[in-house]
Specification:
The chain has helices at about 60-65, 70-75, 85-90, 95-110, 115-120, 125-135; strands at about 1-5, 10, 15, 20, 30-35, 40-45, 50, 55. It has about 140 residues and is of the alpha+beta class. The protein has one domain (about 35-135). It binds zinc ion (ZN) (2 copies).
Amino acid sequence: MFICDCGEIFSSPEVHRGTDICPGCGSKYFDEAVQCKVCGEYVSNDDAYGYGHDLVCRDCIGNRKHDLDFLATASSDAEDFELPIIYRYIFDDDEINAILYHAAKAKQERGDLDLSYFVSDYANDIAEKLCEEEK
Ligand SMILES: [Zn+2]
Ligand SMILES: [Zn+2]
């Protein structure tokens, strides 16, 4: 997909005298477009952050930076809990922990994830952590 400053989004440019042009305004200056994973809008490559299929547009990042629902949406397709690289530079450690927790919980609620092995393997660690928090 491509996107032009005039707002036109198109899958293939028009060809005019051997030059690729925007079908909307005829400009030959247009960018490759990528789809934002959160809002679904096509944006210029330059306005998207992340890698591979985890591209998020500048607007979504700006507006919803600390919205955990947004993050769960953005990470819901992830194969595992490896966070899109983008999170590592816009969030601090506490926020990332909150995101992981949120994503894990959402997966568990959908039945995609069985955390029972985790609880049995790490029961002592969890108990310790809880005791610490009660202090
Ligand atoms: Zn145009
Ligand atoms: Zn977006």
